[in-house]
Amino acid sequence: MQISGTVLKIFLETEKDGFTERIIRINSFEKDQELDIYCYNKLAFRAGFLNIGEPVTFEIVLRGISVGKKQETQIVLVKPIKPNLILTKDHPIVGVEWIRKDSRIPK
């Protein structure tokens, strides 16, 4: 399943149940509504390199979670499709470890 939209907010990484979690809030193109996309572990780190206002397309999976006595549906990122979020250490910027490969400055 895929979802597309524009990035509205990128939350900080948090630790939850032994996992690194980050929430990306997007405005969905399909339904014109704000949706929270949950990212875990390596994807949580990579998602931190998105830009506010950037159009995105994600492969997602829906997961049912219990919240008290209710069931809620959580949207979980499986794979970023656009942008691909490939990171690199091959860049000339001093003091920065990782950058997005598509934003790399030629040497």
Question: Can you describe this structure?
Answer:
The model has no long low-confidence stretch (mean pLDDT 88). The protein is globular, with a radius of gyration of 15 Å. The protein has one helix at residues 42-47, and strands at residues 2-10, 14-16, 19-28, 34-40, 55-67, 70-82, 87-88, 99-100. A 5-stranded mixed β-barrel has the order 1-3-4-6-5. It has 107 residues and is mainly beta.
> Biggest sheet, strands in spatial order?
1-3-4-6-5
Structural class: mainly beta
Query: Approximately what portion of the residues adopt beta-strand conformation?
Result: over 45%
The ordered H/E elements are: EEEEHEEEE
Distance between the termini: 39 Å
Query: What do the pLDDT scores average to?
Result: 88
Low-confidence stretches: none
Question: How many beta strands in the DSSP annotation?
Answer: 8
Overall radius of gyration: 15 Å
Number of distinct helices? 1
